[in-house]
Amino acid sequence: MAQTPRRGDSTRRTFLAASGGAALAGLAGCLGETGDGDDNGGDAVRFILNPAEEQTDIIEEYTPMKEYLEDETGADIELIRAGSYVETLEALDANQAEMADTSPTAVPGGEGFADVLGMRTAFGGPLYFSTIITTPDSDIESVEDLEGESVAAGALMSFSGTLAPATMLSDAGLDIGTFPQGDAEDLEIQTAGDHDTAREQMVNDDTVAAATTGAFASAPQIPQEAFDEYEEFVEHSAEYDDAGSALEDGADELQLLDVSEPLPRAPIMARSEWDDPVREDIVEALLAAEEEDLIPEDVDDDYELWFTGIEEADRDDYEPVNEVLDELGLEFEDFEEE
């Protein structure tokens, strides 16, 4: 089994060609899906939302946050669900949105046209984790056992669902070839649209041996004691207390293979050229938001936002993202040209 050497700056390659073409072509259509049916014109602050999970109604989840910001600032906030991770960032570059909820990978990708307004937190924590999982009835006991197997991953640009787990596979000694721009050598990595889909592909398809997801999409189906050897997860993850909770409701149990190093949670970003005075008011309101502002008591459990606050952050906080991109040999420098 060959182990791929770490691929640093000398071998960095352009990434968007593999993920952006079809998505960017459909950008205008995607941005028509809004929370209130309004057009993107006028004075509304267009807030594009990242489709991290397939089964969630993200417009519904963000509505309390929208209403809070409107009450605090007097702005008219228009929520728009994106069709892909790429579109959240491209919307800022193309003046199709003022703000975006997007992936950590958008921070290096948006340099020059997108600013970090803040970092999402969950129950006080700004860090989250990737997991590599399998099913309890599989023959897979460790990440190394995935040689020759098929693995379902999240969206191609997903930091916790795909990119960070790719480095975990490589660090375990598996040759991931040119993934995510090309094929892995020692195993097959199939990218899905989101974390939930990757998990369900593994559960429902016997040919898929494992999946890589953010812990928020896997921990409720993993017995809590499986995480106890991962001290940083126990200390910092908002998902630890909830681990195994879905098993009580009859969900399929998942087997944990590995947990990543701590990752910075996703940012709220803004178009750099957006200079309306309301921007400063919105940033102030975002950083002051309490959990009850984002998740009111009367919100249905199925529509709860998956973060509880936003803390001040800048590009330096996302250095771990750059490290992952460097290891994978990825480059976003021509994003604006796409």
Coarse structural class: alpha/beta
* Assigned CATH class of the largest domain: Alpha Beta
- In the CATH hierarchy, what is the superfamily of the largest domain? Periplasmic binding protein-like II
Strand element count: 15
Query: Could you tell me the radius of gyration in angstroms?
Result: 19 Å
Q: Give the strand line-up of the largest sheet.
A: 3-2-4-13-5-14
Reconstruct the topology from this structure.
Blueprint: E1 13-14, H1 16-19, H2 21-25, H3 27-30, E2 45-49, H4 58-73, E3 77-81, H5 85-93, E4 99-101, H6 106-109, E5 114-121, E6 127-128, E7 130-134, E8 150-153, H7 159-171, E9 188-191, H8 195-204, E10 210-214, H9 231-236, E11 255-259, E12 263-264, E13 267-271, H10 278-288, H11 291-294, E14 309-311, H12 319-327, E15 330-331
Parallel strand pairs: 1-15, 2-3, 2-4, 8-9, 8-10
Antiparallel strand pairs: 4-13, 5-13, 5-14, 6-12, 7-10, 7-11
Helix pairs in contact: 4-10, 7-12
Pfam family, one: Phosphonate-bd
Protein name: ABC-type phosphate/phosphonate transport system, periplasmic component
Organism: Natronococcus occultus SP4
